[in-house]
Amino acid sequence: MNTLYSNSTVVPSGNANPINDHDDAGERGFDVYRAYQRALADEDISPPLAAIHSLTELVTSSNAGTMFELVRALNDGAETLKKRVPNPIGLTAGCELFIGFVTLFPHESASFSELKREIVHQGKSYTSQAIKFRTKIAELALGFIKDDSVILTHSYSRVVTQALLHAHTRKRISVYVTEARPRGLGLKTYGLLTAAGIPCTVVLDSAVAYVMDQVDFVLVGSEAVVESGGLINAVGSNQMAIIAKAENKPFYALAESYKFHRLFPLSQHDLPTHNSGILSFPHSMNRSATTQTRASPRLTDDVPDGSASASLPQRTMTLEQMNRNPDVDYTRPDLISLVFSDVGVLTPEGVSQYLVGMFAGL
Amino acid sequence: MATEPQTAAGQRPVEALAAKLRRRQVVGSRETALETVLVLRQVVTKARFQNINQLVEIIRSVGQKLIEAQPKEHTVGNTVRKLLHHVREEYNNASKGEATTSASSFSIANFVLQGQPRRQAAGQKAESTLVLKEDDSDDPDSFARTLKPVVMEAIQDILDELETVYDNIAKSAKDHIHSDEIILTIGRSKTVETYLKSAAHYHKFTVIVVESGPSYGGHDMACSLSSSGVSTFLVPDSSIYALMSRVSKVILGAHTILANGGMFAVTGSVLTATAARAHSTPVMVCAGQFKLTPLWNLYHEYGALDFADPGSVLGFEECDLVDKVDVVNPYYDYVRPDLVDVYVTNDGDHPPPSIYRLVKESYDDEDNEF
Fold first, then answer.
1. Topology given in CATH for the domain delimited by A133-268+326-359
2. Does the beta carbon of B357 lie under 8 angstroms from any beta carbon of chain A?
3. Interface confidence (ipTM) of the complex
4. Tens of pLDDT, residues A53-72
5. Domain containing residue B141
6. DSSP per position, B285-324
7. Chain A contact for B107, CB < 8 A?
């Protein structure tokens, strides 16, 4: 199974392949994107933190002489990052937080270089602090897990895995995890949990409804939590939430507070990752020739012909078909029972309050 | 010098209340809250402390003792939490002069916390004139001398709030209840009773009281309402669903409101709320703020918080049966947040999802566990 996906993504959150080739050298020789990638290489660092980290480095190397210049440099850096990463949602949340912070930073230092040093110090101490947030969330979640719970989770999330491993030390739990096509990250969760001795079974994404009546609650991670209190997470979370609601099972989301994102999507189409290519119907024959689409790509009943998918076994999507599918989806707040975050257990409405409070001064 | 927390908890009034709570001589959310405030007042009056931590520790130890005695009366803990919140607030106000907000305290983590719910400026008193000297070795009592009056004032505030709670909730009654409405309520709740009577001054409406067996609190409620001139019907629990189609509003009381917006209320409340949902009848809950509890309902969905005497369900006169069956008489229901439309409190009307915010505003996070 693993060989199937190993070539597609290396970095956990899928921000690996720099699709755009255009090479912004960044701020005077400093490449913010490279700094971002360097930070992401650490398995514990998620995109928002990596973004804060790279922006902190940008401040270090920037020779801005005024606050205005500095904020503009940061905004440019954030823009560059967003352009070069296929899924900029998590990263944008981090950038927003850091830029918001810098903008409101009190000007009490003697000189501007002093101020910059102070900002860099704050950025660094935050990233080191933020690593511990997951421990705190795991502790909060523990209170909601009773003995002999059966938990359903989706795909792979660092914070969920940590919460489950932590719960395992104190309670008896068993876990169903979805395979999470097409990246199959559920198998990673499966591997980690099984290694720790937690009874764990992989569930087909299409079998979520089948398994729902056996679970006590659903626990998912998140890419971002948005202003409506809704959730952006690996595709499949939305349907899981809908099914959980239909079965009256609690649906809990875990999110570190740096994933709070000032965005108000009303539907899947409002997500920044959405583009016209996603789930589009094939164009008419003559136009499809230019995009190498086969005549009926949605019905590959027979062995797919060699080209892009020679290694794929039968009856799976071609790479091209996968590319037409979304990576993340949006879950409405009314489907979410609670959001566990390092700032406490919040109702979805509580998240919006945090966001409003944080950015009220801007 | 300072009173050891252990001895504070061991003081006679504390012991006496703990015993009463344990024996169920003091029951009901408001009664227990009132008793707790009175005990706290005695303890603080006598307490000797040199710094804020000692004072907090003394109050906490009393809280611990009382909660241990009766963990099911959540208002005891709430009252203690509220006092601790006020004490810290007064202390922070007084010591604000020394610690100005400097850049060092402005970190990204604090930036995130700007979104934290907090009381609006209304609570900000005019510039405090207290000069607090902590751990003054020359004059160990100086700290207590300056802070104590303020703390006593805070205790008095809590007491006043408890004493006026029914009237304050009932203030909005005339706006919520209209003429010719048919209101359904269950069991006896002093809050709901005052609320309905207050509305009766302005409008003519009908109340259907469900008797709520086997405690039959509804009987007292119906008597009390009809004696003050409200047109009242008393009905058995089994007819809730059948009558619901005629009802324009359901008004319930609460024992405890939880942070997730759910609540514990007298048995039959879930039945009523569910029937109301089936008929899309609005469900209103009247409760004082002191019932807000920083707890998330975890696993009470099936069981009750508390069990009452099973004798009223199946008495010993049925001796043949008593041996053969288990009799339980759950006293409270857990009502899910989605079954409630609005909480009417002495601090305004709130939908269930914003209850957690009120909870965060009223208590400090570190006091959630004693």
1. Rossmann fold (3.40.50)
2. yes
3. 0.75
4. 999 999 998 888 888 999 99
5. 3-165
6. EE--GGGEES----S-SSS-S-B--GGGTS-TTSHHHHTT
7. yes
